[in-house]
Amino acid sequence: MTDVGSDIESPPAVITIDGPSGTGKGTIARAICNWLGWHFLDSGALYRVLGLVVRRDRLDPGDEAKIGSIASKLDVSFVRMEEETKVYHDGVDCTLAIRTEECGITASRLAVFPAVRKALLRKQRAFRSSPGLVADGRDMGTVVFPDADLQIFMTANVDERARRRYNQLKKKGIYASLADLSKDIEERDERDATREQSPLKPSPTAVILDTTVMSIQEVTDKVKILVRNHGLT
Ligand code: DC
Fold first, then answer.
1. pLDDT tens, 65-98?
2. Distance CA 28, CA 34 (A)
3. How confident is the model at residue 1 (pLDDT cuts 50, 70, 90)?
């Protein structure tokens, strides 16, 4: 009998970084991507673009069938720049527009719909290509890339996450109150973690990193060690 096993190419490597908003996963995912020279998937941006479309076109946010159909045709592209990744919808730059709190809240509401998650699943998996992918989101390790080579789940306490989010928005020229941000984050965590489809939770094999008292550099260094220990460099 011929051994065909050795002819089967293994899929490109994937590192997943999941966790609630404000844990620093986006910043770390980008730093690791730049370090490894891999591709980057900001899965939250896909949900946010959908949120933007629903808000802009004043669609009924409860119309799952319609929103699922829009999600399946969603034309989103990413262009990596030095400091940030530009996000385009139908060829129009929406990088800043999708970062508002309102857009994040709408994204989280639409993300509970199975039709939306199903439509975006294929799009997300299509990002997996050589030399490798770093994917950031809520269900990257549990649902989208359960066979990932390394899965990380980041956490941090709510006050610290609200403070980080505040500074992040301020840098972008978007102003919000710290108290409102804390409330929004808690509500969004609750919705993302308790939905039936792909809830926010660590996969059983994920490495849990509490970043509350860690600097960006410390977290980046820790993740680099994990990457090396998993033979991914
Ligand atoms: O990571 P973010 O804040 O940009 O994500 C916005 C919302 O999108 C988040 O509150 C829930 C949803 N989301 C999701 O359900 N699954 C993902 N993989 C990424 C984001």
1. 999 999 999 999 999 887 788 999 999 999 999 9
2. 10
3. very low
CA 195 from chain centre, in angstroms, equals 17
The burial of 108, by beta-carbon neighbours within 10 Å (0-12 exposed, 13-18 middle, 19 or more buried), is given as: buried
Please work out whether the CB of residue 151 comes within 6 Å of at least one atom of ligand 1: no
Task: Say what angle helices 158-171 and 178-194 make with each other, to 10 degrees.
Answer: 120
Task: For the beta carbon of residue 65, count every other beta carbon within 10 angstroms.
Answer: 9
Task: Give 123-137 pLDDT, tens digit per residue.
Answer: 999 999 999 999 999
Ligand 1 near 43 CB (within 6 A): yes
Which CATH homologous superfamily contains domain 13-219? P-loop containing nucleotide triphosphate hydrolases (3.40.50.300)
Q: Is the CB of 107 under 6 A from ligand 1?
A: yes
Please give the number of the atom of ligand 1 that sits closest to the Cα of 48.
6
Give the atom of ligand 1 at the shortest distance from the alpha carbon of 188: 10
What is the Å distance from ligand 1's center to 101 Cα? Answer: 12
Residue 138 in contact with ligand 1 by CB distance below 6 A: yes
Cβ of 22 below 6 Å from ligand 1? no
Measured in Å, residue 104 CA sits from the centre of ligand 1 at 7
Residues 6+ apart with CB under 8 A from 57: none
Contact 209, 152 (CB under 8 A): yes
